[in-house]
From TrEMBL:
<dbReference type="InterPro" id="IPR036409">
    <property type="entry name" value="Aldolase_II/adducin_N_sf"/>
</dbReference>
<dbReference type="Pfam" id="PF00596">
    <property type="entry name" value="Aldolase_II"/>
</dbReference>
<comment type="similarity">
    <text>Belongs to the aldolase class II family.</text>
</comment>
<dbReference type="GO" id="GO:0051015">
    <property type="term" value="F:actin filament binding"/>
</dbReference>
<dbReference type="GO" id="GO:0005996">
    <property type="term" value="P:monosaccharide metabolic process"/>
</dbReference>
<dbReference type="GO" id="GO:0005856">
    <property type="term" value="C:cytoskeleton"/>
</dbReference>
<protein>
    <submittedName>
        <fullName>Ribulose-5-phosphate 4-epimerase/Fuculose-1-phosphate aldolase</fullName>
    </submittedName>
</protein>
<dbReference type="InterPro" id="IPR051017">
    <property type="entry name" value="Aldolase-II_Adducin_sf"/>
</dbReference>
<feature type="domain" description="Class II aldolase/adducin N-terminal">
    <location>
        <begin position="22"/>
        <end position="202"/>
    </location>
</feature>
<dbReference type="InterPro" id="IPR001303">
    <property type="entry name" value="Aldolase_II/adducin_N"/>
</dbReference>
């Protein structure tokens, strides 16, 4: 059965998993709404509750606008489907997502993108700067991973996790980024911050004249405050809910 447009909760799916599926589907549609997709490529995953490290991810071949809660794939850390589906996952996504979900219990959602501004910044040797409002919020929060080609192979997992360390942003040099946080809402907000930082850095770089640098202490303070707001308040939840309302005002989503 083609499940592309199936929207109702399957009988075998419990309420907790269904709520996660709905939230993840919203996240896919928001990434599409903001124009951050790479056609049918890239991936967003959300870890399911429990000790098995199973997670949800998009069916390969569907546009993000075609993702529904019920057509998301449930897979294990090897990318094996745990429930029947006409679709398969994107092999290039399993190494990255399974590595993070297998190693970092504090990360429940991972978003991978390579928008044009992000791709431009991560191509530069210096990576992200911290001299603008959004870039300052990323100070000390980024791990950098050397490009090894398309992320298909298990042997790269350990090196990616070593590059990430205890951070929540992984720059895949010459490629893109992966961000991960303790919820879908927090991960989406972090992605938005990284995207805005990349846009501002590209715009500033296109202008003549010298940048006005921020002191490291100021950037560190901004980053710590943002991390605290995300960790200790409903800041990211409020932001995500507002973006979903904006999305729903313009798109008819039946779930």
């Amino acid at each position: 059965m083609n499940t592309t447009h199936t929207t109702g909760k399957p009988a075998h799916c419990n309420e907790e998993e269904w709520a996660l599926r709905v939230k993840l589907a919203h996240c896919y549609h928001l990434v599409d709404y903001f124009g951050w997709t790479e056609t049918i490529f890239n991936h967003i995953s959300a870890r399911l509750p429990g000790p098995a490290h199973h997670y949800l991810v998009n069916p390969f071949g569907l546009n993000y606008s075609e993702i529904t809660p019920s057509n998301l794939l449930k897979v294990d850390l090897h990318g094996n489907k745990l429930e029947p589906s006409d679709y398969h996952g994107n092999p290039a996504g399993f190494a990255l997502h399974s590595a993070v979900h297998g190693a970092r219990d504090d990360i429940q959602c991972v978003i991978h993108t390579h928008t044009t501004p992000i791709s431009a910044v991560v191509q530069k040797k210096r990576g992200f700067t911290h001299d603008d409002f959004y870039g300052a919020q990323l100070y000390g929060r980024i791990g950098y991973h050397t490009f090894e080609g398309i992320t298909l192979f298990d042997d790269e997992k350990t090196r990616m996790i070593d590059s990430l360390g205890d951070k929540h942003i992984l720059v895949l040099r010459n490629h893109g980024i992966a961000v991960g946080e303790s919820s879908i809402e927090k991960t989406f907000f972090l992605l938005w911050t990284v995207q805005r930082a990349a846009e501002n850095q590209c715009a500033a770089g296109a202008l003549g004249g010298e940048d006005h640098p921020l002191e490291e202490g100021v950037a560190e303070k901004c980053a710590d405050l943002t991390a605290m707001l995300i960790r200790d308040s409903g800041f990211a939840d409020t932001f995500f809910a507002a973006m979903v309302r904006k999305l729903r005002a313009e798109r008819a989503l039946p779930w």
